[in-house]
Amino acid sequence: PGDERARLVQLLDSSYTKIGRLAAKIKVPAALASSHQSASLAAKSYRHTRATLEQAEKKQQAATGRTEAMHAMTEVSQARMAVKQAEIKASFSLLVLGRECVQANYVPPGAEREFEEIQRLQTQLHSDSI
User: Fold this and answer.
1) What gap in Å lies between CA 16 and CA 99, rounded to an integer?
2) Which of 43, 84, 96, 97 is deepest in the core (most CB within 10 A)?
């Protein structure tokens, strides 16, 4: 039962994220503006950290001395951690936006199937059998 519940929650989160991804690309109702802005900022931060990582990797490839190479390696490692954190924040912000769309009963174009799936999963999740 616990494994099944975890699977259903994971499927729900995936559907919420898909809805959030669709909603992030369009103008949304004012009630969702805050979450929409958060998702946009998180995506921008992710793109920025990816660019920083690419620069650090280029610097590492161009490093000539041992000290320079070690410094560049540290920079790349820190940039990779920053990218991972930014990716997690961006994914979470899309999940939140998707959940808020569902709560507001706002269906972004192309998200009809995900809305139906969420209703089905929520029914399953709240049934007595799990």
Assistant:
1) 5
2) 97
- Cα separation of 102 and 124, whole Å? 17
Sequence length of the chain is 130
Torsion over CA: 30, 35, 38, 40 (sign) = negative
Two tokens, residue 84: 């991972």
Token readout for 97 is 């936006």
**If you search the block for the tokens 């190479």, which residue do you land on?**
69
CA–CA distance, 84 with 46 (Å, rounded to integer): 9
Residue-wise pLDDT for 99-123, tens only, equals 999 999 999 999 999 999 999 999 9
* Look-up of token digits 């690419």: 54
